[in-house]
């Protein structure tokens, strides 16, 4: 979406990610994984080449930056 935003000429874009898969029941984690917040792990194991960087690297960066802000060591706007 970001790479094509100038070409599309629309005011708002909404990414739905895996929402269609969740609603249709395709490739869904077991009930206990969903109930305990481990659906991300199921998706990572199902599609490691596509998701490893997003979940492991970018997710870790997000947690680190959120902790810095909560500790008052850095401000983000």
Properties at a glance:
2 domains, 77 residues, 0% strand, mainly alpha
Characterization of the model:
The chain folds into two domains: 31 residues, no CATH class; 28 residues. It is extended and about 40 Å long. The protein is 60% helix and 0% strand. Helix 4 packs antiparallel against helix 5. With 77 residues, it is mainly α.
Topology diagram in text:
Elements: H1 5-8, H2 19-24, H3 31-35, H4 39-46, H5 48-70
In short:
The chain is built from five helices and no strands.
The structure class reads: mainly alpha
> For the report, how would you describe the main beta sheet?
none
Can you give the helix content as a percent range? 55-70%
Number of helices: 5
Low-confidence residue ranges:
none
How many domains? 2
Shape: extended
Mean pLDDT equals 89
Number of strand elements: 0
Helices and strands, in N-to-C order?
Answer: HHHHH
Distance between the terminal alpha carbons, to the nearest Å? 22 Å
Radius of gyration: 16 Å
Assembly state here?
single chain
Percent of sequence in beta strands: under 5%
């Amino acid at each position: 979406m970001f790479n094509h935003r100038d070409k599309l000429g629309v005011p708002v874009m909404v990414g739905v990610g895996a929402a269609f898969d969740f609603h249709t029941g395709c490739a869904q984690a077991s009930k206990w994984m969903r109930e305990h917040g481990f659906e991300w792990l199921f998706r990572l194991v199902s599609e490691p080449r596509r998701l490893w960087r997003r979940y492991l690297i970018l997710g870790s960066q997000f947690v680190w930056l959120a902790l810095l802000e909560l500790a008052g060591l850095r401000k983000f706007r």
